[in-house]
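Inputs:
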Amino acid sequence: MSFLHINNVHKRFGETHVLKGIDIAIEQGDFLVLVGPSGCGKSTLLNMIAGLDSISEGELLLDGRCINDVHPSRRDIAMVFQSYALYPSMTVAGNIGFGLEMRKVPRKQRREAIDRVAKLLQIENLLDRKPGQLSGGQRQRVAMGRALVRDPQLFLFDEPLSNLDAKLRVDMRTEIKQLHQRLGTTIVYVTHDQIEAMTLASRIAVMRGGELQQLGTPQAVYDDPNNLFVAGFMGSPSMNLVKARIVEQDGLPVAQVATEASTLTLPIVRDRDALRDWRDRDVILGLRPEAITDPASANHREGNIHEAELPVALVEPTGADLYVVTTLGGTHVNARMRPGTPLRPGERTRFAFDVSRMVVFDPESERRIRDERVAEATPIGETA
Amino acid sequence: MSNASPEQDGGARERLQRWLPKLVLSPSCVLVLFFVYGFIAWTSYISFSDSGMMPDYTWVGLHQWSRLWTSWTWGIALHNIWVFGLLYIISCIVLGLILAILLDQRIRAEGVLRTIYLYPMALSFIVTGTAWQWFLNPGLGLEKTMHDLGWQSFSFNWLIDSNMAIYTVVIAAVWQATGFVMAMFLAGLRGIDGEMIKAAQIDGAPAWKIYARIIIPQLRPVFLSAVVVLAHLAIKSFDLIVAMTGGGPGNATAVPATFMYSYAFSRNEMGIAAASAVFMLAVIAALIIPYLYSELREPRS
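Outputs:
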C-alpha cells in the first residue's frame, strides 16, 4: 500500500471536465512534482489533495485512510501557497503558530515549536515582524515555517517559488531540496517550471489537459518520454523533434532524415522490434541536444555513435556549452558541442549522433513507439 | 529657456500650450476661491461681529461665541449630535459589515440584493425623511396599520415622544447609509487574498475565527473610511431632520445644523449662527483633513 494514493480521480466544474481520471501513487518520503503548462489541472489536483476542492469521482488515500470527505484541517497536511498567504495582521511568530493555536496547543509548547522551526529556517530575528516588513524570500521562509511547525504527514507546495526573482528562486530551490533530505518528509509540489521539477523531484507527474502524461523518476521522464508532449516539455533547450522515415536496410529498420542536400541515415538501436512494423512509414525522431555533439565529445564508450558531416546554420555560445544549429528534416536542430570549437555559420562540420538515446514517435497519435517491456517506471495515464 | 533658438511661431505655440491648462482652470479656481473659501472667511468674520438680522461688521470679539456656548438650545443640539452620531456610525458599521459578510458567501442573486441594499443611498435625505415620517407617524403609518389589522394594543409613537424622537432619526439615517457602508465592506472583502482563507482553513480555524482574526483586521482602512464618511454626514445632517421632525418635538431633535439654520433665518441671530457654523466646520475639518492627508500620502510609502 502506497503512502499517498490518487485513485482514478476526476474533477468536473459543471460541464467542464478538468481532471480526467488521475492515477498516482507515491511512497513515504517521496518528492512528487506535478508539472505541466497552465490549465493542465495540476493546481486543481493539489487543492483536491488539500481538501480545498471537492473530488467529483475517484478516491484519495493518505496512509491507507480515505480522505475524500475529510476537512482540510483534519487531513494532517500543510500547504505552502504561491502568494504565501501570510496573515498580514499577525507577526511572523503569530503566523507560524496560528495552526497550533487553532489546535489548542498550550502557549509554552507553541513557543517551543515556533522557535525550533524559526531556527531551522534561520528566521529567528524576524519573529516579531509583520509580513509587510519582510522581503519576498523571507515571506517564503515564513510560509514554509507555517507548514513545517505542525509536522504533518504530507506537505503541499503550490508554485511556491514563482513570485521570487531568478537568483533567489535557485537558492530557495536548493533549500527546499535540503529540507526534504534532512526531514525526510513527503511532498507534493506543483510547478510549471520543468527545471524545478527535474531538480527537486523523486517522482515527476507530467500533466496536460487534465490527463496524466507520464509518471516516473526525473531521469526516466527525461530519457524515456511517453509521448511528444513530454519530450518537448521536459528539458531545456528542448528535445529536437525531426521528421523521418523508417526503411529497412540489411534486415534492420533505420531512420532516414532529409538534410539540405542529401539524406542522413541513422541506425535504430532502441525499440527495434516495435519499429520493424513501421517500415516505409513517417515517424518523428527525438534527440536531446546533448545526444548530438562533436565527435571528440561524444560518449563512445556507452553510446552508439553515428557520425555525419552537416552544414552549420547558427552558433550559440552559452559559455558552458556551444549550441550549434543545423537543419534536419526541415527543422532546426540543436547540437551541444564543446565550447571553443571554432565554427562559423555556413561551414560544414562533423556531427556525432548518439543513436542509443534516440526515441521515435508516431506522428499521428504523438505516442512513443516502443518495445513491449516492463519499464522501470510504469507508464500510466496514457489514455487516448 | 532650454530651447537655444526658438522660432517665433513655435515659441508662441509652446507658451500657449504651457498656459492653456491654467487659463481653462482659472475661472473655476476663482469661483471656488470666492464662493467657498471667501464665504468661509466671511462667515468666520461674522461670528466675531455684532450681526443680528442683517450683517453688521462691528467687531465684538468672542461675544457671539460665548452666547453660543451659554445657549441652552446649543447644549441640546450638541447632546443630540453625540447621540445621533455615535448610534448612526456604530449601527451603520455593524449592520453594513454583517450584510457584507452575508453577501460574500457566494449566494445566488447577490447582484440583486446588493442593488436593493444600495438603493436607499440614491434617495435624497428629504425623501427618506418624509417617507420615514409617514411610516412612523402614529396616525398614518406603522401604528395605524397594526391597529387596522386588529392589533389594538400596538404602540409605536417615538416620533412624537421627545425622549425617543432622536432615535427615529437614527433609524432613518441608518436605513439610508447601511447599504453604502455594506458596499464599502464588500469591496474590502473582495480584495482579500483567497489563498489566505484557504491557508486558515488548513490551519484549522473555524469560519468565525477566520473573520475575527484574519479578515476583519485587514479591513481596517475600510473602517476608517466608513467612520470618516459617516461622521461628516452625521454632522452635516440637516435635511433629514428637517423633513422628519423639523427639530421637534420642541427642541428634542435639534442638531447643530438645524440650530444654525433657525438662528440665522428665523431668530435673526446671524452672529451666533455664524459661530455655530464655524464650529461645525472646525469639527469636520478635524476629521477630514488628517484622513485626506493619510489617504493621499499612502501611495508613496
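Remarks. The longest strand of chain A covers residues 16-26. Chain A has two domains: 4-232, 239-361.
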